[in-house]
């Protein structure tokens, strides 16, 4: 499984390898909606962005993560996403630690970003499955994952401790290689259909 930095491009989004030079753009993006204040997810604060970039790049050097900076069609930085929990033996991975500026949420950007990531995972990396995890109470994220065509595998009870000290139950979803052709068609259709 050739896990190496790669740029994935579409009409609405470009996913580029995370770089420390993206810091200021990522800070601007996370301020669009004060995203780090959401209690049910872990999104870096403006002051914590440099440490988060360093953390993701360290995990990349260890072979367990491949982080991307998300840019819109105009090249403006609007968020982050990653391949994580990479299991090269299976092979399988998780798409996670994803966040977008409020101004680009509920736009074709996320659908196309997931289509690009899933296409690369299944067709280049030849993954058996791709996983998504989110807080059981993060209903916006759960609905978005379900709209992709992922299926709920189950709930991991008492999975993580959150910043505020609460314990997170994690909803685990996946798309398997046999699911991929139908999911690909569905996501492509979503991007092509007229929007009202």
From TrEMBL:
Q: Where is the N-acetyltransferase domain?
A: 25-178
Keyword Transferase included in the entry's annotation: yes
- A Pfam family that this protein carries is Acetyltransf_3
Any GO molecular function: acyltransferase activity, transferring groups other than amino-acyl groups
Q: Which domain of life is it from?
A: Bacteria
> What InterPro entries does the record tag this protein with?
Acyl_CoA_acyltransferase, GNAT_dom
SUPFAM superfamilies the UniProt entry points to: Acyl-CoA N-acyltransferases (Nat)
UniProt keyword terms in alphabetical order: Transferase
- The name this protein goes by in its record: Protein N-acetyltransferase, RimJ/RimL family
Q: What is the lineage of its organism?
A: Bacteria, Pseudomonadati, Pseudomonadota, Alphaproteobacteria, Hyphomicrobiales
């Amino acid at each position: 499984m050739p896990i190496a930095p790669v740029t994935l491009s579409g009409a609405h989004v470009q996913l580029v390898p995370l770089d420390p030079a993206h810091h200021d753009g990522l800070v601007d993006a996370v301020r669009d909606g004060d995203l780090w204040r959401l209690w049910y997810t872990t999104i870096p604060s403006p002051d914590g962005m440099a440490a988060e970039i360093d953390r993701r790049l360290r995990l990349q050097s260890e072979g367990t993560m491949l982080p991307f900076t998300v840019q819109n069609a105009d090249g403006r930085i609007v968020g982050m996403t990653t391949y994580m929990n990479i299991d090269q033996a299976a092979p399988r991975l998780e798409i996670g630690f994803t966040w977008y500026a409020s101004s680009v949420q509920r736009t074709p950007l996320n659908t196309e970003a997931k289509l690009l990531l899933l296409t690369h995972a299944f067709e280049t990396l030849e993954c058996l499955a791709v996983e998504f995890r989110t807080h059981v109470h993060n209903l916006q994220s759960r609905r978005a994952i379900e709209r992709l065509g992922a299926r709920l595998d189950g709930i991991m009870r008492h999975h993580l401790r959150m910043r505020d000290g609460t314990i997170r139950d994690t909803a685990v979803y996946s798309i398997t290689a046999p699911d991929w052709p139908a999911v690909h068609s569905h996501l492509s259709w979503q991007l092509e259909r007229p929007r009202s």
